[in-house]
Write a structure and sequence with these properties.
34% helix, alpha+beta, single chain, endopeptidase fold (from Nostoc punctiforme), disordered N terminus, globular
Length: 173
C-alpha cells in the first residue's frame, strides 16, 4: 500500500501529548498509568483545540513541535469518521464548561487511579470520547467513559497512527 504524504492534520484528528517537564502532567501520567497525559483535537491543518483544566484554546501545532525535548506528540485518525460525527464531537467540545480549579482535576485523576468514576469535572479524553460514543464510535468498549484516558485512544483499534503522514517536522518554525 502506497503512503501519501499529507501536509497537515485532518479536521477531527486526535493529538496525544506528553509534556516532559510539567509537574501536573507527571501527576496525570502517574495516576492514569499512561504514557500520554493530554489530548486535543485538530480543527484544520496546523490548528488544534487544546483542552486545558483552566481553559479551552486553539493552538498551532508548531507550539509543541518546536521543542521536541519538551513535548512528544502522536496524531491519530479515527477510522470511518463521518463529517456528521466529526462536527458533533467538535461542537460538543465547544459547549463544555471550563474548569477553573486545578485541585478538582487532581482529585478526578486520583479517583481514576482508584478506578472510581466521577462527575466532579471532565477530563480531556472523556470530553472527546463521550460524543464519539454517542455517535457509535466507542474508543474503549466496556469502560466507563468517565475513566477513559489518552492512552485508551492510543490503544484503540478504532484509530490509526498517522503521525508520519502529517509530517510534523514541517511545522517547525
Amino acid at each position: 500500500m502506497k503512503k501519501i504524504e499529507v501536509k497537515g492534520m485532518n479536521r477531527g484528528d486526535i493529538v496525544l501529548f506528553r509534556y516532559a517537564y510539567d509537574p501536573i502532567a507527571f501527576v496525570i501520567r502517574l495516576t492514569t498509568r499512561s504514557h500520554w497525559n493530554h489530548i486535543g483535537i485538530a480543527l484544520h491543518g496546523t490548528v488544534i483545540l487544546d483542552l486545558r483544566a483552566t481553559k479551552k484554546r486553539t493552538a498551532h501545532i508548531h507550539r509543541f513541535t518546536r521543542n521536541k525535548h519538551l513535548y512528544q506528540l502522536k496524531i491519530l485518525r479515527i477510522k470511518n469518521l463521518t463529517k456528521e460525527t466529526r462536527e458533533h464531537v467538535i461542537n460538543t467540545i465547544n459547549t463544555q464548561p471550563k474548569v477553573r480549579i486545578y485541585w478538582k482535576m487532581l482529585l478526578k485523576f486520583f479517583l481514576m487511579f482508584l478506578n472510581i468514576p466521577s462527575d466532579i469535572v471532565y477530563n480531556c479524553a472523556e470530553i472527546i470520547a463521550k460524543p464519539l460514543r454517542e455517535k457509535g464510535i466507542d474508543v474503549c468498549p466496556g469502560k466507563d467513559v468517565r475513566l477513559i484516558i489518552p492512552e485508551d485512544f492510543n490503544k484503540s483499534d478504532k484509530l490509526e497512527d498517522v503521525t508520519a503522514l502529517c509530517n510534523l517536522d514541517s511545522y517547525i518554525k
